[in-house]
Amino acid sequence: MPGHGMSREDRIRRRSDYQRIKDQGKRFRTRNFLVNYQVLSAGRTRLGVVVSRGMRNAAARNRAKRLAREFFRLNRSEIKAGFAQGLGADAFGLELVVVCYPGVEKLKYEQVRKELSAGLEQELSRIREP
């Protein structure tokens, strides 16, 4: 099924990119996630997923990463549209790093979707205010 996964260009892969987003970007927190993001003047919408050290079991870490990637994959266009509306810009790049905390692996996808959607909505309303 081509076109359903995330291409190499859609992923944040280098440590320097993760560090730049953490240092120069903005962040918001939900109960189970920390999302660091940076808006760039141009480029793609990319995602990086990090699992905190508290999750010792490999199966749990992998499930947490899959849930975060699936949210991004299914909602990428809505995320980009929300930031476009909030920033008043059409052409920009967006890089997101999602940090998953212990407990995410126990959630169903629908719970992850609600939590991350609510966090993004709250952040977008904060961006629109100033």
Walkthrough of the structure:
The protein is an alpha+beta fold and 130 residues long. It contains three helices and four strands; from the N terminus they run αβββαβα. It has a single domain, classed as 2-Layer Sandwich (Ribosomal Protein S5, domain 2). It has a four-stranded mixed beta sheet with strand order 1-2-4-3, sandwiched between helices. Helix 2 links the parallel strand 3 and strand 4. The radius of gyration is 14 Å and the shape is globular.
Portion of residues within helices: 40-55%
Going across the biggest sheet, name each strand in turn: 1-2-4-3
CATH class category: Alpha Beta
Radius of gyration: 14 Å
In quaternary terms, these chains amount to: single chain
Largest pleated sheet: 4 strands, mixed
CATH topology: Ribosomal Protein S5, domain 2
The best one-word shape is globular
**Number of beta-strand segments:** 4
How many separate domains make up the residues?
A: 1
